[in-house]
Design a protein that fits this description.
By secondary structure, the protein is mostly beta strands. Helix content is 9%, strand content 51%. It has 2 domains: 46 residues, no CATH class; 353 residues, Beta Barrel (Porin), CATH 2.40.160. The relative contact order is 0.13.
Amino acid sequence: MYGGVRGRTNLALVLGAGMLLGAAPVHAADLGGDCCSDLEERVAELEATTARKGNRKVSLTVSGFVNEQVQWWDDGAESNVYVGTNGADPTRFRFVGKAKIDKDWSAGYIIEIGIQSARQDSTSQNNDDDVNALNLRHSAWFLESKTYGKLTVGQTSAVNDGITELSPAKTTVSKQITIFTPNAKYALRDSSGATIGTTWGDLQRGGGGEGDRFNVVRYDSPEFGGFVASANWGEDDLWAVALRYTGELHGFKIAGGISYAEVTDNSQGFNGNAEVGHDEGTSWGGSISALHIDSGLFVSFAYGEAELASSLVTGDNDYKNWNIQAGIQKKFTPLGATTIYGEYFNGDFGVANAGPVTSSDVDVWGATAIQSIDAAALDLYIAYRHYEADAYAGPAKLSLEDFDTVFAGSKISF
């Protein structure tokens, strides 16, 4: 019924406009049959195959990206090549709705689904497939005021999620403090080539000052001179506060932030991911980055620290890590910006989440190149990383092999 009415209405408008302009009349015979019936049928067919919103009051934006790659790795005893999803910025799609209440207030929602298929942060020496599944990243509603800020309720990012990754440069395929994430499930090997029951992700047990997504009540203040203050509470129990800044100063783009978090629910932990443990304690972290607008040169620094509850470990419970990235991002070709940078990471870690390690000192260095193709919303990238660890089981130092990896792929947004 709806399609037929609209089809006749549109046809009437066209014929009326033609008569007013003195156009020659259009006869059914000119279209080779019953024109109205044909048009109504076509309109009904199009409407039946078109995605529509549930109502006209709330906007709907669908976005996301696909980020797939080829990865070579060598753990000192074995090497291989896998095809899968980038671990630092995995494939996802998002639905965002928003409705205007008045001049100041609006309401909306966010639903974001990740696609888990051979993800780089879940594969290992013995598993190149992972589990093909969808995972819920965000499911929350919000009320937002230009005057009073934004309140969000549901599963979404805690205010310290991404606090150690702030940068005006495009470095998302190779993030800062979370440098371990892409290879978290790969086991460490001793000098004989045997695995020791500890993975690279187990070493960074405390989360390094970086947050994640939880079921929370979150508040973000309005922007004041580039600053936004945020706080959240949720689960049973965790809370965090953060302050972020973005702006331009004396020819530089600046991005930075700092946060503090406390977790008293050992079923969640600092970032809720199995590869870094589910531990109670406190953490703080932050990052600062500056990009010179004219030259494209940039430098980023991040620091994170976590202290686990002393009842959870019998040994070192303090985890510290820092990272520096430096490079250039400039449009050398009409295709889009080119980003090239090197990085260094150091982690001073306590008791590992599994295996015999009671403390470790980890060094990681690497380099990344990204070429953006603006016409296709496409980023092509290649990255190299080298990992090495001095690890101890009590007073005894373990002799461990280094880990090397190269991964290359593309991220296309929609």
